[in-house]
Amino acid sequence: MTFTTSTLNSEKVTAFQNLDVDQQLALFWFIYTEMGESITPAAPSASTASPTIAEALFEQVKHLSDEEQLQVQRDLLTRKNTLFAREYGAIGDTTKLLFWYLLAQGMDSGTVIPVPSDYKLSAEAESLFNQIKRLEFSEQITLFRDIVSPTGVDPNVVEHDSATGL
């Protein structure tokens, strides 16, 4: 699966990717908590989303220990070649958005490890967050799609990893 980043968002996507993985995860959480009511309803209702697949992936994560849940999320963002990252990497971008939406809901309900309540975004993440808040709704959705598009591992294009056997 290939991805293209919209020219409008390439700078923001690069800024997101340049954050350390925990800042990326925290930024997702802050976006959900501050802007969730306007952004997240678009993911579940999108015509190209596969709710059954996103929900099945979410259920796998939900049943892991807190440490394993956190590691799965880190692995997706760092594109670590794991079986879960391959399953996730094979889905479409809109379904990926739905998966992250379900994770945020799980954090909200306590079924997924949350960001610590006293967690502070770095100056870079805070700046990016403020830029995202100023975008129009459609630009926000496009940006989030651009951010999640390359996450995970596309099983159709990755070379065999002898260390993992995948």
Major sheet: size, sense and barrel closure? none
Return the structural class.
mainly alpha
Segments where pLDDT lies below 50 for 5+ residues?
Answer: 1-5
Overall, the morphology is globular
Q: Please count the beta strands (DSSP E, at least 2 residues each).
A: 0
Beginning-to-end CA distance, first to last residue: 17 Å
Helical element count?
9
SSE pattern, N- to C-terminal = HHHHHHHHH
- The whole-angstrom Rg is 15 Å
CATH class category label:
Mainly Alpha
Overall pLDDT score: 86
Number of domains: 1
Second-tier CATH architecture: Orthogonal Bundle
Q: Helicity, in percent?
A: 55-70%
Word description of this protein:
There is one protein chain. The protein has 166 residues and is an all-alpha fold. It has one domain: orange carotenoid protein, domain 2. The protein has nine helices and no strands. It has helices spanning 10-18, 21-39, 42-45, 51-62, 66-78, 83-89, 93-109, 123-133, 137-148. α2 runs parallel beside α8 (123-133). The protein is globular, with a radius of gyration of 15 Å. The model is unreliable at 1-5 (pLDDT under 50).
